[in-house]
């Protein structure tokens, strides 16, 4: 399985080690982006983009944002699905939680409850041992 397919595929299984590795990889990417953006002042960044031409800079920014959003949401659905598959469970629960987090809810108590459910679900995915041997989703992987 190629690296990109491993990261974004909803098929098959993902063990605890692979899940932790994937989460740490995303964390490192965001830390790297944050560091890169913090090295330059706002004026330097605007100057660099302005020198490239305003239309090009705008299109580049939109394309980068679209790429990040699609990649992040694909991973937010794929990794929990594959962790659930590793435990022999349906991956549809991961989709339910992602959809739940996208609902336009303004009530603070409901938002807190959803956040707590997501944290408990993440910890469950992180620490629950997968099934030994082959299950209906395939052989165990890293």
Task: State the major sheet.
Answer: none
> Which stretches of 5+ consecutive residues score pLDDT under 50?
none
Radius of gyration: 19 Å
What share of the residues lie within helices?
A: over 70%
Strand content: under 5%
| Helical segment count | 6
The total beta strand count reads 0
Query: Helices and strands: which structural class?
Result: mainly alpha
Average residue pLDDT: 81
Shape: globular
Distance between the termini: 12 Å
Query: H/E series, N to C?
Result: HHHHHH
Short structural description:
The chain is mainly α and 142 residues long. The protein has 6 helices and no strands.
What does this structure look like?
The protein is mainly α and 142 residues long. It has six helices and no strands. The protein has helices spanning 3-8, 16-39, 42-52, 54-86, 92-102, 108-127. Helix 3 (42-52) crosses helix 4 (54-86) and helix 4 crosses helix 5 (92-102). The longest helix is centred in the middle third of the chain and has 33 residues, at 54-86. The termini are close together. The model has no long low-confidence stretch (mean pLDDT 81).
